[in-house]
Write a structure and sequence with these properties.
Layout (H helix, E strand, L loop, with lengths): L1 H48 L40 H5 L7 H19 L6 E8 L3 E2 L2 E5 L6 E11 L9 E8 L6 E3 L2 E3 L2 E4 L3 E3 L7 E10 L10 E12 L11 E11 L8 E2 L1 E6 L5 E4 L2 E3 L35 E7 L2 E2 L2 E2 L3 E7 L4 E2 L32 E4 L5 E5 L18 E5 L7 E3 L5 E5 L2 E4 L1
Parallel strand pairs: 3-12, 14-17, 15-22
Antiparallel strand pairs: 1-4, 2-3, 4-10, 5-6, 5-9, 5-11, 7-8, 11-12, 13-24, 14-16, 17-20, 18-19, 21-23, 23-24, 25-26, 26-27
């Protein structure tokens, strides 16, 4: 009898505690639900703050135009940070269409993803060059012209662009031309002229092209100029290549290009004048290999005040370069003097000194660091028999040209600065490639040619 009462008491207790917990739960939800919601909103806001809806590397929270990409070019006013350049006022930045909500931001992100997927999708359109040639002096697929001592050719060209695919082309097609050497190693983009108007090197646009349709273009290019492969004296041959490109993902792209051969004869060539440099100076520590800029350029001789065009060495090598005993005076090439600097207590100390000649045809470009090449018969020389400077000529040390221009060792660049008694070496000089001689050709002995393009020397 007693046991029965105890059992009834336990069940009753469980029911009472369950009711209390249920009521407590309702109270918690009633009193703290709003706070929980605010907490969730807080974290959502923080996540949204550090998002980048318009993909311009500016957080949404800092971006005054979070749904309009600035493309990296912000409005000049700092208070309109993240807005496109054309956004001029705060009212424009505050426009609801430009200030997007998280929902709008999500839609923008989805559209961007859809656009990227669309770009990857292979198009059923097929752009092809169905015809390409010149309207005169054109036979058997070749353009031929006797220039009769003219310096260039004005070539009239025609091209037909067709869409032989199953879809319309609704993206812009750009038609451009370049001139290449026969090996197609060096190609030069050419300006196109239509009805007397220069279009530039980017090419002619075709805004759209329906399937089964074609569009013809007539234009002119200048051939045998700007250092292209047909630029030079006498007879020259080159390749004229045309291309039609777009953002489409085409299955077949080989038919987007076509080429013709060109031959120019009896062409007059006018030599160009390049700035001459007699000596270059390189400087580094022998135990710190790496890439270094040329330390100094000199139109004359470095460290020899008794010679024409003197330039000071600027260190303890003053008077130690270009000595009378140097083998550099016996051979053709271009001077390179060397200071192997020493440091003592963080300051430059006494330098060891040496020199060499680089062979003609050797190039030191701005963008392509290279070890200093030595003329074989000269090798390396030091008036004081210093050994360490020679380490700066090893492959572990590479050198690049400075803003004055890339360097070519020429044997056909006459200079008035020459040591008396060594006039047979007056044509051996470094010459500079910079914007002043863009597109010009340097001719060396034995018909070697180098083109100056984009501040770099290229062997033709």
């Amino acid at each position: 009898m007693v046991m029965k009462k105890k059992g009834e008491s336990s069940v009753f207790t469980i029911i009472i505690w369950g009711a209390i917990l249920l009521i407590t739960g309702f109270l918690v939800i009633a009193f703290f639900g709003r706070g929980f919601s605010r907490s969730t909103e807080f974290f959502d806001e923080k996540i949204e703050h550090f998002g980048d809806c318009d993909d311009d590397n500016v957080f949404n929270g800092d971006d005054r135009c979070p749904c309009l990409s600035s493309q990296g070019f912000f409005s000049e006013k700092v208070k309109l940070w993240g807005c496109p350049e054309e956004t001029k006022t705060e009212n424009e930045a505050a426009d609801e269409e430009k200030r997007c909500t998280p929902q709008q931001c999500k839609k923008t992100e989805e559209k961007r993803k859809e656009a990227k997927e669309e770009e990857k999708k292979e198009s059923k359109a097929d752009i092809t060059i169905s015809r390409f040639g010149a309207t005169k002096n054109f036979q058997d697929g070749k353009y031929r012209e006797d220039l009769q001592q003219k310096t260039e050719s004005i070539v009239p060209l025609e091209v037909v662009i067709s869409n032989i695919g199953e879809e319309n082309v609704e993206k812009r097609i750009m038609v451009s031309v370049k001139v290449c050497n026969p090996q197609k190693i060096l190609c030069i983009p050419k300006k196109m002229t239509v009805q007397g108007t220069s279009i530039g090197q980017d090419g002619l646009p075709i805004e759209s092209l329906d399937k089964g349709r074609s569009q013809g273009l007539l234009f002119f290019i200048e051939l045998g100029t700007e250092g292209d492969a047909c630029d030079g004296a006498g007879a020259r041959d080159c390749i004229i290549e045309i291309s039609a490109t777009s953002d489409l993902q085409e299955k077949e792209v080989k038919n987007n290009r076509k080429e013709i051969n060109a031959i120019l004869t009896s062409q007059q060539w006018v030599s160009s004048l390049f700035e001459n440099i007699k000596t270059i100076h390189i400087k580094a520590q022998d135990d710190e290999p790496g890439t270094y800029p040329i330390h100094q350029l000199c139109k004359g001789y470095i460290g020899r005040s008794d010679l024409l065009g003197y330039c000071p060495a600027g260190d303890s090598c003053e008077g130690d370069f270009h000595s009378d005993e140097s083998p550099g005076w016996k051979y053709h090439g271009c001077w390179a003097v060397i200071s192997e600097k020493q440091e003592l207590l963080g300051k430059e100390g006494i330098s060891e000194c040496g020199e060499t000649l680089s062979p003609t045809g050797f190039v030191i470009n701005q963008l392509e660091p290279t070890p200093i090449k030595r003329e074989g018969q000269v090798g390396y020389y030091s008036d004081d028999d210093d050994k360490n400077p020679e380490k700066l000529l090893t492959p572990q040390f590479t050198w690049k040209a400075t803003v004055e221009g890339s360097l070519l060792c020429s044997d056909n660049a006459e200079s008035k600065i020459i040591r008396k008694g060594f006039e047979e070496l007056k044509n051996d000089n470094w010459i500079l490639c910079n914007p002043l001689v863009e597109g010009k050709i340097a001719k060396l002995v034995n018909d070697r040619e180098f083109l100056c393009r984009n501040n770099q020397w290229y062997k033709r």
